[in-house]
TrEMBL record:
The keyword Lyase does not apply. It catalyses: GTP + H2O = GDP + phosphate + H(+). Belongs to the GTR/RAG GTP-binding protein family. This is Ras-related GTP-binding protein. GO terms for biological process: cellular response to amino acid starvation; cellular response to amino acid stimulus; negative regulation of autophagy; positive regulation of TORC1 signaling.
Length: 416
């Protein structure tokens, strides 16, 4: 597949000739700049000047990195993604494969979960949430169980259905869960993973999805809750479908998604690129892509490329001691496929990477692409800065509100 291959692992980036005269690069999304003309093609852009690492992690507490969901007195908590479903439907396997790099075959030895497992996922500046894995046997509608508290802070509820099993019971549990959760928090996104589809033929998969879709919608309509929207995904841990489904779930929790998509659209249209993804490298979740449709094969190629880069970096790269990663913000890779397509990976931060698909002819203008990438990086920094400012203001306002309340109550008690 790969005719030529080039990886710059940690600390080995060859950011040679920075021929660019110090230009004043504009930072707003509308101004992702375009360079045209012959001489621009010679440019090699040095991204070091704008060190995104500086704002990717260190400046922020965990709370700051959370997208949305304010519920405590003066802070912001991470949105929760709940993994629910009957026993042995595959919940823990999904979590282990996507977030712990467990190989699918190892999940055969996973023991049944007997208590709620919470895990923080804060792998990048944009991806930050908590996953709660519920044991299949738990009756969370038991009166002693505070399900209202759980649903109140939930961003997405993933209900996993084992497609290789009889799913009648799973569907009635899904209905119960969704209706109760909706009453507590109508903002939850409800996601249904029709899981373990690796054992089914293509026709059978579609048929199952149609059947499950029809039954759940009929149940909701009968209950007068047709306004509840469920999204369905066919998933398996044995291929990339689980990563793709998880990407779509996570994207719904990123408030900056439209801005990121817009930036990617501007970037690709000005750089001769056919498709670009913004990946969270650790989990292989793509947090944004441009508006052209995503096909599974392209996504799989991106995942394979990320695996290769990580493997090579682990072997030949110098460890990024601070972050505990084998790659850093300077890592990049180029793969030339034998069908004249080039895949170009460039790190945006130490956690985020952009993967682009383009024609060989367009790649000849690498200088232009690198320059536009550099502008894209700066625009992302702006998005991030704005978010930090909004969150800091929100915190400040909350603190003020509380001190005002304290004062008021002080006045009340003295007049009494
Ligand atoms: N064929 C196939 N098997 C899977 C898939 N995902 C999980 N499994 C298997 O399903 C079995 C149960 O997986 P678990 O992850 O333990 O299920 P769980 O829902 O967490 O179970 P509880 O902890 O009991 O609630 C394991 O043997 C997994 O290997 C899949 O996509 N395809």
């Amino acid at each position: 597949m790969a005719l030529t291959y080039q990886v710059n692992a940690v600390g080995k980036l060859d950011t040679t000739s920075s021929l660019n005269p110090k230009q004043n690069v504009s930072m707003t999304s509308e101004k992702v700049s375009v360079l045209c003309g012959e001489e621009d093609e010679a440019l090699e852009y040095d991204d070091d000047e704008y060190d995104l690492e500086a704002f990717s992690d260190a400046d922020l507490s965990c709370e700051d990195r959370a997208p949305g969901f304010s519920d405590s007195m003066n802070g912001v908590v991470k949105p929760r993604i709940l993994l629910m479903g009957l026993r042995r439907s595959g919940k823990s396997s999904i979590q282990k494969v996507v977030f712990h790099k467990m190989s699918p075959s190892e999940t055969l030895f996973l023991e049944s979960t007997n208590k709620i497992c919470r895990e923080d996922v804060s792998s990048s500046s944009f991806v930050s949430f908590q996953i709660w894995d519920f044991p299949g046997q738990i009756d969370f509608f038991d009166p002693t169980f505070d399900y209202e508290m759980i649903f109140r802070g939930t961003g997405a509820l993933i209900f996993v259905i084992d497609s290789q099993d009889n799913y009648v019971e799973a569907l009635s549990r899904l209905h119960l869960t969704v209706t109760r959760a909706y009453k507590v928090n109508p903002d939850i996104s409800f996601e249904v993973f029709i899981h373990k589809v690796d054992g089914l033929s293509d026709d059978h998969k579609i048929e199952k999805q149609r059947d499950i879709h029809k039954r759940t919608n009929t149940d909701l309509t009968d209950a007068g809750l047709e306004q509840i929207h469920l999204s369905f995904y066919l998933t398996s841990i044995y291929d990339h479908s689980i990563f793709e489904a998880f990407s779509k779930v996570v994207q719904k929790l990123i408030p900056q998604l439209p801005t990121l998509e817009n930036l990617l659209n501007i970037f690709i249209s000005n750089s001769g690129i056919e498709k670009a993804f913004l990946f969270d490298v650790g989990s292989k979740i793509y947090i944004a892509t441009d508006s052209s449709p995503v096909d599974m094969q392209t996504y799989e190629l991106c995942c394979d490329m990320i695996d290769v880069v990580i493997d090579i970096s682990c072997i030949y790269g110098m460890p990024n001691v601070e972050a505990g990663l084998p790659h850093d913000k300077d890592s990049m890779a180029i793969i030339h496929l034998n069908n004249t397509t080039v895949i170009y990976l460039k790190e945006v931060t130490k956690f985020l990477a952009m993967v682009c698909f383009l024609r060989k002819e367009s790649f000849a203008r690498k200088g232009l692409i690198d320059y536009n990438f550099h502008c894209f990086k700066k625009a992302i920094q702006e998005v991030f800065d704005v978010r930090v400012k909004v969150q800091q203001t929100r915190k400040l306002l909350n603190q003020r509100r509380w001190s005002k309340l304290t004062l008021t109550s002080g006045v009340c008690s003295s007049t009494h």
